[in-house]
Amino acid sequence: MKTLFFAAVAAAATFGAPVLASAQEIAVIVKTTNSNYWQNVRKGAEAAIKNHSGYQMSFDGPAAETAIADEVDLVENAINRGVKGIVLAPSDPDALVPAVKRAYESGIPVVIIDSNLAEGGKKYYQSFLSTDNKAAGEAMAKEMIKRVGKTGDIAVMSYVPGVGSEIGRVGGFKDYIAKHSKLKVVSTLYSQSQMATALNQTTDVLSAHPNLKGIFGANEPTAVGMGRAIVQAGKKGQLVALGFDGNEDLQKFVKDGVLDAIAVQGSYQMGEKGIDTAVDLIEGKKVEPFINTGVVIVTKKNIDSSEAKNVLY
Fold it and tell me: Which family would the database say this protein is a member of (predicted)?
């Protein structure tokens, strides 16, 4: 199928389609625009597009990660206006497959970032750029065991169930905990990537489990809500708290000792490399099917290091 896709692009170039025409649009469509994480993806994409003469980019996403139908509509609209490439962070692994299939059938290359499509949709895109979420989850599990030991109760504050990144990240965390310790996960809750929901859920968990030894907030809005709940409950320093992503709120929590560590993805790199990969595809170049954009464990000790500053936003 992918061979047919590249043949179609080559044929379009041969028969006069303006594959390298001026100001060709690459549509960057993310899970939501209401997140510093995704705005950092935008910054990376904007930096990259400046290096590619003859191209322009658009950036869009729904108001919330749960507005899946709105993201589907954005992809459909991009196809309808004839964009030359799409960089997509799918909010749902199944719901976005038909739209990506339509892009494929229209000869529009698609680069998937952050979260993968369901198995049936993988033949319709050309490259996947992401943190290795399973490895990142395992890294946070190792951090948890190192800090709390191998026994006791911990909780997981997750975000949207079934999303590719969540499956790998939280699954990797839980599997490693189960295999390498006797820590018990007493609660797993889903904030739907809403900070206020995460705050309320964490407040309830802390109340229900006063002897909780550790807690893991698995994405940006969830970790922010979790951190605020810890502060409000007067639990700072009384349990190990680990977060994911690296906006200003989370950085402050690390510096203040509310969070012991955060795992920070290369969100800027997703946008930057996403654009670069889309341009390569449009121009008929070979690309890697998977590009790992990495993760850095940031603590109070290394938060001012160059390695951390390259991923914090």
Answer: Belongs to the bacterial solute-binding protein 2 family.
- Model pTM? 0.79
Contact by Cβ (8 Å): 155, 212: yes
Beta bridge partners of 295: 265
Domain count, the chain: 2
Domain that holds residue 19: 2-131+266-294
pLDDT digits (tens, 9 = 90+) for 97-153: 999 999 999 999 999 999 999 999 999 999 999 999 999 999 999 999 999 999 999
Question: 36-63 pLDDT, tens per residue?
Answer: 899 999 999 999 999 999 999 999 999 9
